Fold MFS transporter.
Amino acid sequence: MTAITTQMPLVPGRLEQMSTRIAFFIAGFGLAAWAPLVPYTKARAGLDEATLGLLLLCLGAGSILAMPIAGILASRYGCRRVLVGGTLLICLALPLLATVSAIPLLIATLFLFGAGLGAVDSTVNLQAVIVERASGRTMMSGFHGLFSVGGIAGAAGVSALLALGLTPLWAIVVVIALILAALLKAAPHLLPYGSESNGPAFAVPHGVVLFIGLLCFTVFLAEGAMLDWSAVFLTSEKGIGDAYAGLGYAAFALTMTAGRLMGDTIVKRLGARLVIVLGGLFAAAGMALATLAPNWESALLGYALVGAGCSNIVPVLYTAVGKQTVMPEHIAVPAITTLGYAGILAGPAAIGFIAHASSLGAAFLLITAMLIAVAISGRILRV
């Protein structure tokens, strides 16, 4: 009996839930720690905006390529090993990003950093699906809320350290120490197994998985628009001063984080389907308000509505992909994560093209229509 018991995978409990939250925090913290370093890297390497944009694509390429591989590795060797390995890649890349100036080294380092982020992001969502299902409770929004908290802590923390006079390298040393401390706390209770690995190693998403992935793409596209274009829109269209242009994304991020931290209760009371419907409508209304309002104060309210509306749609979609039977989890979860990342990476570039051909307002109204489509999809998606 003892031999049989030791071979069976553990059933995730409270300690595994705690480790999942910490892993989400690490993912958000590690990603956001890079943002304040971008101007330093640009100046150190003597990059113009176009070259910097091309270099940043290397980060996205590393992430997208790592995600399906991470799903395969997690199914064979367990979530713990992949999460630890991905986190160590992040810790290896960050000090290089704070110091290197040669473009070939930056390309390699950004690709490495992106691979670490992609591996962690994909695998922690796979673990979250397993842990939530074992608990029998709604937990996904809370997990994703810790990613948002980590993002705020990473960006604000590194910015504060730099403002205090630390060099980028020493600021990153502090970041790495915190990441490793969090990893040591979480690692013993990360899952030593993944989901069942029946089926092919790679598969093109299809059926309901493709449908869910496209919804993730749309929501992440809206998030990418807030990150990359809200400040430009506020300064060029609403007349806000450059020093306050970041308030648009701040309003979005604040309500996004608050919505996710309260999300498990919201999903439990309203139901997953209604969360998608109402979330899509709130986000669409917010995007329309931000675009059409005559003043920047109303635009900030619109961005806040976008954050609140989008906050729990993606967590609900991850729960849904854990319930489907069309594709194995270790393929389906990385697939929708990859499509989501594509929305963040390719979406802002597409917005730029549309804005060049027409206007930035027209691009935002197109996103409004796509968010309405998400709301309509919530009525037909089985969640």
About this structure: DSSP finds 16 helices and no strands in the chain.
